[in-house]
Amino acid sequence: GIQLFFTHRIVGIWGVGFSLVLLPLGILLGCLLFLVFPELAIVVLIKAMDGVLKQSVNKSATELLTLPIPFEIKNKTKSFIDVVVDSIATGVAGFVLIFVVRGLELPSIYIIGVILILVVLWGYFIFQVRKEYFKTFRYNLELVMTKVDKNSKPMVKKVSVVDGMRTVFKNGTEEQILFMLQKLMEINDKRFFADVQLLLQHPSTKVRTAAIQNLYYLNAKTMVSNIPDLLATKDDDLTLATLEYLLLHAKKNSALIYDTYLGHENIRIADAAFYCLAREARDNNSLKMAYDLSGRIQAKIDEYTRNQYSRSELALLLRVIGFSNINWFYPFVTKQLKSNDGAIVKVAIESAGKSMSEVFVSDLISFLPQKANRETAMAALRNYGVNMLTVLSMTVKERHKSLEICRFIPTALKSFDSQLAVDHLFQLLQDADLTIRLEVVRALSDLRKNRPELRFDKYKVVDLIFDECKLYHMTLSAMHSQIIMLEPVCWNYWNAGWMPVLSVFLDC
To answer: Which residues contact 319 (CB under 8 A, 6 or more apart)?
Structure first.
């Protein structure tokens, strides 16, 4: 009952800080009451307070705490906190009880004393995390606002999160609204449905695009009425987002959407529907056959061969092939990878990455030395998942590619930004090529700076540094020995004239 009817009001009106305090405050009052009336009923009341508030108000407030945190960090830490930290804390609590009750044989009043101490400590941590929460939230907004106005001040102060987000949706700049919509995608709070729906009237197409992407997750039952206006906008991203919204909303009636829009008189809407069909039919053979996706792609390729599409039409065709998962069209993408048009090459690289086919791996790795296409190629390689780390490291170890290409692979490994990437980079630290080792060190240094939570084997680092020092010392010793051996020869040449001496040094 509390979760259904009160939690959203408590958290929404009084905010995260107050909601987090309710559970420890209830336990604190229960313990104080037990000191006055040491009855079993009070213990039951404390336990009930814990059971009711922990899974409702406290849980919701704790979830909101992660709102300002980047999504990738939130994903990794949430499961760790829910499983590992909670289990360890329960175990420690059990040991404390065993120690107090069985070990010291203390009366129940001492257990209440331990609880009171822990509750005070709990309150202190809530106060600290509340300050950090508002500080992080304001920092994120300030970061967005400085792109527009360096002298501007944050809009969200110590008010409830809901009120703060609504203020941004109503009065914020484009960057602030986009930031909040991105955060809303992570929490999917249905209370913001009306606010997001109003953003469909916003003058910025980026805001309208982000708003329509949010709407399905906020309300899957009610569809907005201004779909024709959104489709009529001359913006490809907004048209595509609107069609995706329609398809998600249509669920089992997606055939109606394809029947309506695949043959639309507006070629931009028809192309967007074609793109959506390819993406939805990637692993759905019945949908491919129902709308003859293969035939439609072949017709587009034939038309391109006859008429030479514009750049935008060719880019759409490449993206469709990438999503379609139909491998006999891949040679067309391979051909465009060698195009003289830099923009088309980038789209072809993206398409190859979306296909996740082994056919393109070698070509994608070959793009790494090209500065203009390096970031796009690395993003495409990341689409293949963590298995690509092994392929990249083996390419360096076995020299499947030229040394020039291999020297850029550590940068590609770094872009995976994970513990596995660190492990594979460590394996390349003993490569025979000095340049590759230097690139590996740079990659590890960047990862260490940007992701300090990753594990780095410091003992292995020390050993490798020591090995490099020994190699450097041996090199200096060898050079010194060569100089000593050459000294009599140089002296003889000096007696014969300065020109032979110069030639000896040039040879050296």
So the answer is: 275, 278, 347, 350, 351, 354
**Cα(245)–Cα(267) distance, integer angstroms:** 19
Residue 486 has pLDDT above 80, yes or no: no
Burial of 456 (0-12, 13-18, 19+ CB in 10 A): middle
> What are the distances in angstroms from CA 381 to CA 112, 174, 332, 336, 428?
57, 32, 19, 18, 19
Rounded CA-CA distance 274/316 in Å is 9
Residues 311-340 have pLDDT tens digits of 778 888 888 888 888 888 899 999 989 888
- Among 380, 344, 341, 342, CA closest to 362: 380
pLDDT digits (tens, 9 = 90+) for 76-113: 777 788 788 888 988 988 888 888 887 888 887 888 88
- Residue 280 tokens read as 């939805």
Q: What Rg do the C-alpha atoms of the chain give, in angstroms?
A: 32
Distances (CA, A) of 227 to 94, 233, 245, 437, 451: 58, 10, 10, 55, 42
Look at residue 155 in the predicted model and tell me its pLDDT: 46
CA distances from 251 to 35, 256, 280 (A): 59, 10, 12
| 258-261 contacts at long range (C-beta below 8 A, 24 or more positions apart) | 258/291
Contact 238, 208 (CB under 8 A): yes
DSSP letter at 359?
G
Please check the confidence at residue 502 and state whether its pLDDT lies above 60.
Answer: no
The whole-model pTM stands at 0.61
Higher confidence at residue 281 or residue 498? 281
Question: What pLDDT, in 10s, does the model give residues 381-391?
Answer: 999 988 899 99
Output the pLDDT for position 145.
56
Tokens of 492: 């003889």
Is residue 314 within 8 Å of residue 337, measured between CB atoms? no
Exposed e or buried b per residue across 95-126, where buried means at least 16 C-beta atoms within 10 angstroms of its C-beta? eeeeebeeeeeeeeeebbebbeeebeebeeeb
Residue 366: phi and psi, rounded to 5, are -65, -20
Please name the residue ranges forming H helices in 188-263: 193-198, 205-218, 227-232, 236-250, 254-261
**Helix count (H) and strand count (E) of the chain?**
29, 0
d(CA 139, CA 1): 36
Average pLDDT over all residues of the chain: 80
- The pLDDT of residue 205: 82
Cα-Cα-Cα-Cα dihedral of 381, 387, 393, 396, to 10°? Answer: -60
User: What is the distance, to the nearest Å, from the Cα of residue 467 to the centroid of all Cα atoms in its chain?
Assistant: 36
Q: Average pLDDT of 9-26? A: 80
